[in-house]
Amino acid sequence: MSTPSEKYASFRSDQEHPAVKEFRALYDFELDEFQLRACAALEDGHQVLVAAPTGSGKTLVGEFAVHLALERGQKCFYTTPIKALSNQKYGDLVSRYGADKVGLLTGDNSVNSEAPIVVMTTEVLRNMLYAGSQTLLGLSYVVMDEVHYLADRSRGAVWEEVLIHLPDSVSVVSLSATVSNAEEFGDWLETVRGNTVVVLEEKRPVPLFQHVMVGKRLHDLFAGEAPTARVGAPAVGKPSKSGNPAKAAKSDLKDLVNPQLVRIARDDNRIFRDDSRKPRRRRDLPRNRPAKTHFTPYRSDVVEELDAGALLPAIFFIFSRKGCEDAVVQCLRSGLRLTKPSERDEIKRVVAERTADLPDEDLGVLGYHDFAEALSRGIAAHHAGMLAAFKEVVEELFARGLIKVVFATETLALGINMPARTVVLEKLSKWNGEAHVDITPGEYTQLTGRAGRRGIDVEGHAVVLWQPGFDPREVAGLASTRTYPLRSSFSPSYNMAVNLVRQVGRTRARDMLELSFAQFQSDQAVVGLARQVQRNTEALEGYKESIECHLGDFLEYAALRRRIGDREASGSKRRKLDRRIEAQESIEKLKTGDIIRIPAGRSAGWALVLDPGMRSEREGPRPTVLTLDRQVRKLSMVDFPTPVEAIGTLRIPRKFNPRNPQQRRELAQVLRNRTDLLGEDGPPSRSRDIVSHADDPELQEMRAQLRAHPCHGCSDREDHARWAERYFRLDRENRDVQRKIEQRTNTIARQFDRVCQVLDALHYLDGDKTTEAGDRLARIYTELDLVAAECLRQGVFDELTVPELASCLAALVYESRSKDEPTSPRLPRGDVRIALERMGSIWRDLSALERDMRVDFLRSMDLNFCWPAFRWASGASLAEVLYESDLAAGDFVRWVKQLIDLTEQIADAAGDTPLRSTARAVVDQIRRGVISYASMVE
């Protein structure tokens, strides 16, 4: 029951924020305090950054921006990072406001684009800003959902481009996952966009309990209540002071981890070490060896245990597409069935309805029947290799509670609204394309953040499966450490440069790029370095006071002493190098049978050369010798700090075997008889004289200046000298810090300058204007934009047929998922190969120019999709193309859709030429069958 003061506060809030009051009435639940704060700030005219955990309801703030726009007769754009999210949000807004007020723009679809509310992908908005689209007129609000995507290496720059280039009249609502530097991000938004209110919510809407499954038994991860399970617990814990979550876990969380798990890990690791020492048969194992009862449970067993414990629905994260598909098969083979008859009927109805437009001839190759059978049992996979239509069916059925378990890759954690009661992580490491790496605390938080459905579950559960070498304390560190900083991945591209120069000129473009979050973060680091320089400068002034001498300028005297020391050290190094070279040359002159005296090392003394040894570029010559104590040694340059000279020779028997002790003893005795006559020291060394300090006239001149300096006679000279050494060391350190500041200051602007130098050299830019070639480049948005533009300019595509053009453009789009794909893929014959060779030559020339200008943007072309694209554009069936290419259906569809995007850009950039007609024919030819259906649903 509310107190009178709370009622009055609510009354005042409603009076001050009538739009928020009206918006609250649309929902049958109370808004959270952070949602109300954000909505009130938005109504007051502020821009807003909301950073909150997954499932906390931060998108409601974005929907309030939509509500404000409609109420005030203005326009709002709602942007998302992926098309699936755009489709989902479009459906939500249509349900609330009606189809006449909501539009959709995703690149593939344009639905009611002039509506007051338009949902779109972020790239679409970026392209509209560069093109100066009329659709931007009247725009008042932009919602940037999942704005933390700006950390994405390949696409993150788009978010910063949009935030920088949006007109000042537009209010931005930025929605982000919980990040550990939200305040820093908010400060940047304040700098770029103006008055921005940061609303940070770290409390999970549903308590999260952490577990580890060992065999078929579920153990609590923490001894007491999990940090994420407390009422009002933060979604992420405090930052690790050490910067190492695993290390923090073993120290800060030592007493919090379930001791039973610690014992299991200790016993399991001991058994594992015993087993790994050497391979043994079971009957050879000791009888008292402890039985290994701890094992990784089968996926089907995990699902059964979760079902028995009322912990479904669950998302089961497996960091492998094949692993997800295999998990579904395992569950089917185990006879697992998680649905009721009524649920199965509804699932079949939805599947039939949502896939009715798929071509019948493609259903078999798409694996439709196995897919539908698994769904009817409440089991599904979800990954990027699946057909978009299949993924959407899974998402809809899971959201409705009809699917009980989804085996998914981490891509499911990227914004799709699919909350579950339980999240399972099979492993805590994943393949990142180059190596198996441990997941970060931020990734762990994102993945497990889907556990616990607000308004449905009273608690959520995160389950990690036991694996060999498992350390529960490290898992506790992942679950409790707040280390998810947002780091900019922004860098200026060629397309970005020509678009900016064309719009605002080079100087203004340079200034705009200085506003990037990347430069802001770099400048923040510079602030700390600048403070260090200031402290060092103050300390240097203090040192100067301690160095003052009544006889003269002691710093001048100390600097002269340092120059003398440096000169002497340099001379010593030079003499040492000369001596090494002389020693190496002397060793190279040795022959078999030479008697030498080894100057240093364990074998120092007389020796007989058995083999002069081959010279090694890295190690120098390695002669093999017989010593007086009958040892055969292989020597190195370490044994010869000074040159060596043969003082005689000794004939070595032809059949001498250095491995025969008797022969070694006899030959060593002959050597001893010969060397006894020479005495202990042997003949004097005849190495040539080395230049000494006395022979260096410049050094002698500096010494004379030192003796003549007034401070040379100071009684406190050595005390002053010690302070001077401290001064010089700190001064050198200070100069190093200043160099770091120079390197970090204006880094983005300097990179932009180098990009412009490349474009100047290729005549895409002419001062503050773009050339005709630059205008073409401005229309091409792809990673290999400059290669595509050069191919257009040089006419590489002009004479190609429809299938040939599709094949060549595929080389600019496709990027292999792994390094195992063929390096010499199958290619069409004839003009395609000629065109690809010309494209390769252009890429090599551009790469050489990039090296000269010190930039690196152009990845290598990938030809592994050229043949599938050629076959599809030639009219081959989906079954034929997938069989010949070994591609997953979802991957094939996705790459063809990207090929369509690039081909449409090429058609736009080609102008009124025959190439435009060919490119449009390519789009018409490849947008068929399952591709055409995918374009309708995405």
Write the topology of this structure:
Blueprint: H1 4-16, H2 18-24, H3 33-43, E1 47-51, H4 59-71, E2 75-80, H5 83-97, E3 102-105, E4 110-111, E5 117-121, H6 122-131, E6 139-144, H7 157-165, E7 171-176, H8 182-193, E8 196-200, E9 208-214, E10 217-220, H9 245-252, H10 259-276, H11 299-308, E11 314-317, H12 321-333, H13 341-354, H14 368-376, E12 379-382, H15 388-399, E13 405-408, E14 422-425, E15 429-431, E16 436-438, H16 441-448, E17 460-465, H17 472-480, H18 494-504, H19 506-513, H20 517-547, H21 554-588, E18 594-598, E19 605-611, E20 615-616, E21 620-621, E22 624-627, E23 632-634, E24 648-649, H22 661-676, H23 697-708, H24 717-744, H25 747-761, E25 765-766, E26 769-770, H26 772-777, H27 785-793, H28 802-813, H29 831-853, H30 866-873, H31 878-885, H32 889-910, H33 914-926, H34 930-937
Parallel strand pairs: 1-7, 1-8, 2-5, 2-6, 3-5, 6-7, 9-17, 11-13, 11-14, 12-13, 14-17
Antiparallel strand pairs: 3-4, 9-10, 15-16, 18-19, 18-24, 19-22, 20-21, 22-23, 25-26
